[in-house]
Automatic annotation (TrEMBL):
Compositional bias (Basic and acidic residues): 302-317
Residue ranges constituting the ABC transporter domain according to the UniProt record: 66-300, 669-887
UniProt KW Repeat keyword: yes
Organism this protein belongs to: Collybiopsis luxurians FD-317 M1
Any Pfam family: ABC_membrane
Name this protein carries in UniProt: P-loop containing nucleoside triphosphate hydrolase protein
Keyword Transmembrane helix found: yes
């Protein structure tokens, strides 16, 4: 203690403490990463250890029937899921080589029965000698109720994991009624169906899924209510030409359907499912599909000769729908940088950045003064006389306080700016996505949007601000420390310029490759997420077809593409880092030799000069270059965000577009010369439609699958490009704000959406309606009558029942009933039902239609349906044929 504070002691301690500082920073940085890694490993381990596995209960193969002993099957009880259970009290068998029909009320367990047959539910034997056996050696084909298609061409969706056989392929297209549909696509069967089959109508998706099952060589075919998505004529064609045709010869078909009257004549057995139990099993006279009697009508060509279809979106000659993500060449544009800086700076960007730079300058200036003062303090011990330690210590502490205060203020200011910038960019991105056109959403995969909302926004939230702050800090360090060093040693300027020139040359070589590779990485990640999402959605179908290996290979191919670009990106970083370290070592060695052997100076000045370049300057100069490169690589996110904020937008609301407060007072609708298309350059899907609907009138809309019925509903809401006039309650909708128009009309689309939460939240997300009204709406929608089949109270759905994301814990029929109840809660003057009851049994559907007429007195109802029973209660019926409407 009480030793002299010499230059050697001061600058040696500086080296030690700076290294210690780096070590402590690294500990905290890598500790958080280690915790994140542990959480990820724990989740993966839990998933692998607790994943539901298939139950295997083998039994001797039977050549005459598929038998199921007295058993029950269920899915596990997990949060936000209702237990699905199907119970077989006695032996259940399906005839081989025949069509077996499964029917029952909505929500009774028909789909669960098929899933149990596929092994997607846990098998629970009710006795020691009971068994379940579904032969797998001949293969199983499965067409789900919610048609699953890949983002591929129509042809690839049909072939799936099978080899291409031209004759068989053409025959499958014929019996599935797809020939006319393909003629209307410019690219034919090479047309991409888009994500979730968005270019196809519901009926077209159902028939593509059916064609995939029929084309496969599987001995067993499971079809889940695919007739519900088809019109009467097409359904008849499918039954006569496909289900009773040669392509299903010697194959076992298990068909779930409410259309018993149409299918029963060719069915060898009818199984009735009620409340999850096989309550009635009717074994009819076996009608093998190889020897069908004359039970079908003679007008077998009627279904396929009915009016042509209109495709629900534009098809390009090459069949491509999804637009490829652009990979921009060159450096980051000024507009992209301006997008970020304006978001960070807010309304007073000049003041913000001026203050930030001023505080940063003060911080680093005082940092240089701090190190110089230590050298000056140490030099005082070389002079005669006593050194006033308290005086120098007070000054040093004051300098430290200024450094800490300015550094803290700079960090707080920058953090507030980055939070503001991230929030503004996210809000801007969300606004343009929510305000874009339906066509753009059709052309852009959801996985790509999710990538930008997660990966890109994540970089803008964390990585880019961190590196931007570091780049500014390093630049200030370079400026002040270079100035200080050059002042004491002018020769250092030559070495510094030489090092900068060498670093700049390497940087230019590096950037030419690095920017393109980084953009390629961003583009390559979306297909991985998209394929994975599609795989999870269609997992039951993939497992049924035994296509796990094919799907896995495709996923690995996409991952390999991303990994290759990622590996190149990080290898380029290593290439750059090696050259920076070599230049830094040469630079430091030359400077040290000069200071020790050439320049004669005091110990304090020599220590100051060596510590400035060694500890900070050499690391700063090359760290800054690398950081700028990395920052520019990450700034690809700005380019992507800039592209997104420039996408096509729907019309913004204006003051002139607001209707009177009393509007709408009635549901009168007048349409004059309405034409519609899905894109400005695309073909018309509706042509010169004109009709008038009086307030309170109920109109049924029918037409062949793909004829434009859903397009009519979208055109009334201005979701697609339209010409002509639509007058709703006396006001042209073209002059009205879109949010006002759409909030005044209630539509139940074919593709239903339910949010994760309680049933109450799904019916009334804003909490504006009391429980009595909600229960009345559920009763009017048919839920009460439907639940009369349930004997257990715990199986019944109430307002407090938890609905999982996408309604995965409900049957499709229950989805439709809940969305119908949600529409009733809104009490709109105009209600559009687009196949709102297609998955509901006839008895419940009849009750719903009667209830709707009573509940919606005074409201105009447009019902789009394939089932004639659904629209028989309408005042008038409009048929859509070749995009032309005729009212009867």
């Amino acid at each position: 203690m009480k030793q002299a504070l010499t230059a050697s002691t001061v600058f040696s301690l500086l080296v030690v403490f700076e290294n210690l500082q780096r070590f402590i920073k690294a500990i905290f940085m890598y500790w958080t990463r280690a915790l994140a890694a542990k959480v990820s490993f724990d989740r993966i381990t839990d998933f692998l250890n607790n994943t539901e596995l298939l139950d295997i209960y083998d039994a001797p193969s039977s050549t005459d029937a598929l038998r199921w002993g007295s058993t029950s099957a269920e899915r596990d009880r997990v949060p936000a899921r209702v237990v699905f259970m199907v119970r077989v009290e006695d032996k259940l068998s399906f005839e081989r080589g025949c069509l077996n029909l499964v029917t029952g009320p909505t929500g009774s367990g028909k789909t669960s029965l098929l899933l149990a047959l596929l092994g997607e539910m846990h098998y629970i034997p009710l006795g020691p000698s009971l068994y379940f056996h579904l032969p797998q050696e001949g293969g199983v084909a499965y067409a789900a109720q919610e048609s699953w298609v890949q983002n591929e061409t129509i042809k690839n969706n049909i072939l799936f994991a099978s080899e291409y056989d031209k004759a068989r392929y053409k025959e499958v297209l014929h019996v599935c009624g797809l020939e006319q549909d393909l003629e209307l696509f410019e690219a034919g069967d090479e047309t991409e169906v888009g994500e979730k089959g968005l270019t196809l109508s519901g009926g077209q998706k159902a028939r593509v899924t059916l064609a995939r099952a029929i084309y496969s060589s599987a001995d067993i075919i499971l079809l889940d209510d695919m007739l519900a998505a088809l019109d009467v004529h097409t359904s008849k064609w499918i039954v006569e030409k496909c289900l009773a045709g040669d392509l299903v010869k010697d194959r076992t078909v298990i068909l779930v359907s409410h259309n018993v009257k149409l299918v029963e004549p060719i069915a060898s057995s009818v199984t009735v499912v009620q409340d999850g139990k096989i309550s009635q099993y009717c074994s009819c006279t076996p009608v093998p599909l190889t020897k069908l009697p004359e039970v079908l009508s003679d007008d077998t060509d009627e279904g396929n000769k009915d009016g042509g279809e209109r495709v629900n979106s534009e098809s390009k000659p090459d069949g491509k729908l999804v637009i490829a993500e652009e990979i921009q060449e060159g450096r980051i544009s000024g507009r992209a940088v301006k997008l970020y800086t304006s978001a960070v700076g807010g309304n007073h960007a000049v003041f913000f950045f001026s203050t930030f730079l001023a505080m940063t300058v003060l911080t680093h200036f005082m940092g240089v003064i701090q190190m110089w003062f230590l050298g000056y303090w140490a030099a005082q011990y070389e002079l005669p006389g006593k050194v006033p330690i308290v005086f120098y210590l007070t000054i040093y502490v004051a300098i430290l306080v200024v450094v800490i205060a300015s550094n803290t203020g700079t960090d707080l200011l920058f953090i507030s700016g980055t939070i503001r910038g991230s929030r503004r960019i996210y809000e801007q991105l969300a606004e343009v996505i929510l305000g874009t056109t339906l066509r753009w959403l059709d052309k852009t995969p959801t996985s790509r949007i999710l990538t930008h909302f997660t990966q890109d926004i994540g970089s803008i939230d964390t990585i880019i601000p961190e590196w931007a702050k570091y780049a500014v800090d390093q630049m200030m360090k370079l400026t002040f420390k270079l100035t200080a060093i050059v002042t004491l040693t002018p020769l250092f300027l030559i070495l510094g310029v030489a090092a900068l020139a060498a670093g700049y040359t390497c940087t230019q070589i590096y950037l030419k490759s690095q920017m393109s590779v980084k953009r390629e990485m961003s583009v390559a990640k979306s297909p991985v997420l998209g394929h994975f999402g599609a795989t999870v959605t269609g997992l039951a179908s993939i497992q049924a077809y035994g296509a796990q290996e094919m799907v896995t290979e495709e996923l690995l191919r996409r991952i390999d593409k991303y990994s290759r670009s990622s590996r190149i990106f990080y290898n380029l970083q290593r290439w750059m880092a090696i050259r920076m370290h070599v230049i830094s070592a040469l630079f430091f060695g030359s400077l040290t030799w000069y200071l020790v052997y050439v320049k004669k100076d005091t110990a304090s000045n020599t220590g100051f000069l060596i510590n400035m370049p060694v500890l900070t300057f050499t690391g700063a100069i090359f760290g800054w270059i690398i950081n700028i490169n990395m920052l520019e690589g990450q700034s690809v996110r700005f380019v992507i965000q800039l592209y997104f904020v420039q996408i096509e937008q729907e019309a913004k609301p204006t003051e002139q577009g607001k209707p009177p407060a009393y509007w709408p007072a009635s549901g009168e609708l007048r349409v004059e010369n309405l034409s519609a298309r899905y894109s400005p350059e695309g073909p018309e899907v509706l042509h010169q439609l004109s009709f008038h609907i009086k307030s309170g009138e109920r109109i049924g809309v029918v037409g062949r699958t793909g004829s434009g019925k859903s397009s009519l509903a979208l055109s009334l809401l201005r979701c697609i490009y339209t010409t002509g006039e639509v007058i709703y309650d006396g006001i042209p909708t073209s002059s009205m704000n879109l949010d006002t128009l759409r909030s005044s009309i209630t539509i139940i689309p074919q593709v239903l959406e339910l949010i994760s939460g309680t049933l109450r939240q799904n019916l009334d997300p804003f909490g504006e309606v009391d429980d009595l009204t909600l229960n009345d709406s559920l009763r009017a929608a048919g839920l009460t009558a439907l639940q009369d089949y349930f004997t257990e109270d715990e199986d019944k759905i109430t307002l407090d029942t938890t609905i999982s994301g996408g309604g995965s814990n409900l049957s499709v029929g229950q989805w439709q009933i809940i969305t119908l109840a949600r529409a009733l809660v809104r009490r709109s003057k105009l209600l559009i039902l687009d196949e709102a009851t297609s998955a509901i049994d006839y008895k419940t559907d009849t009750m719903i239609q009667t209830s709707l007429r009573h509940e919606l007195t005074g409201a105009t109802v447009i019902t789009i349906a394939h089932q004639l029973q659904t629209i028989m209660d309408s005042d008038r019926i409009a048929s859509v044929l070749f995009s032309i409407i005729e009212c009867h």
